[in-house]
């Protein structure tokens, strides 16, 4: 998964379908800033307020993620959500609807930064649509504390792959793994996201969802720090083809994975 890193300058254009931003919606914004600030070394500054209080997380002065307070009038999960790049958020949202997905929020302008929507695929997995203007997306990748990969955990990949390939110009590459229902989505031959069908292995209270992976320098130290800061380790560390990985949750329950690349 780490081969999908794309160091991006602040004005780099993303191909439609490229995961270009990750955003977390929570109840307690101040406590969440403290957790991720301590865990990843992020600093925060105000961002667009269309959905309520919202901040952008910065690492070394460059934007890497967003954190907002959940609107009281919308039923949205406490979860990390990847945003997929679009040249036209309105057209993409229309295509989502035509292909069996739903659009819960927007499209709407996020000040001068761009235009966005929050959608779900036919299985219910939530993702964002981002038409960048002044803010194309994540400005720093490939270093500890930055998002490095996104993976969809769903019931099965065949039908949901058709949806994503109808909305964005993805190519698919099956992952050779005995008994596993996995594939990789590519753009211009470059891997950008993974799909993993787990059948009834999905938590009944969660359903299909996207998971974001963050790069870390020392996985064991990160897991200890997660626990010290009030989070939880959900799945112990294991060695994967792209490094050592574990799944954790922050104090509000938002799940994410952390990966230490091979040395």
UniProtKB/TrEMBL annotation:
Pfam families: Glyoxalase_6
Domain VOC residues, every copy: 18-132, 146-261
InterPro entries from the UniProt entry: Anthracycline_SecMetBiosynth, Glyas_Bleomycin-R_OHBP_Dase, Glyoxalase_6, VOC_core
Signal peptide: none
Coiled coil regions, renumbered to chain: none
PROSITE patterns tied to this protein: VOC
Identification of the protein by name: VOC family protein
Annotated source species: Streptomyces eurythermus
């Amino acid at each position: 998964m780490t081969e999908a890193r794309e160091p991006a300058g602040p004005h780099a254009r993303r191909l439609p379908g490229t995961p270009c931003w990750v955003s977390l919606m929570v109840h307690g914004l101040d406590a969440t800033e403290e957790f991720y600030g301590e865990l990843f070394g992020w600093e925060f500054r105000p961002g667009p307020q269309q959905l309520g209080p919202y901040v952008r997380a910065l690492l070394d002065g460059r934007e890497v993620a967003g954190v907002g307070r959940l609107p009281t009038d919308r039923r949205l999960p406490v979860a990390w959500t990847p945003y997929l790049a679009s040249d036209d958020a309105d057209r993409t949202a229309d295509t989502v609807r035509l292909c069996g997905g739903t659009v819960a929020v927007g499209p709407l302008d996020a000040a001068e930064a761009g235009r966005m929507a929050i959608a779900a695929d036919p299985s219910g997995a939530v993702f964002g649509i981002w038409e960048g203007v002044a803010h194309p997306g994540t400005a720093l990748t490939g270093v500890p504390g930055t998002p490095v990969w996104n993976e969809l955990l769903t019931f099965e990949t065949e039908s949901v792959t058709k949806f994503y390939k109808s909305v964005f110009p993805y190519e698919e590459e099956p992952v050779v793994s005995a008994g596993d229902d996995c594939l990789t989505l590519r753009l211009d031959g470059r891997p950008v996201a993974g799909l993993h069908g787990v059948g009834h292995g999905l938590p009944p209270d969660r359903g299909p969802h996207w998971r974001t992976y963050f790069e870390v320098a020392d996985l064991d130290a990160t897991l200890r720090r997660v626990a010290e800061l009030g989070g939880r380790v959900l799945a112990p560390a294991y060695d994967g083809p792209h490094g050592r990985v574990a799944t954790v949750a922050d104090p509000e329950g938002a799940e994410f994975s952390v990966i230490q690349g091979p040395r």
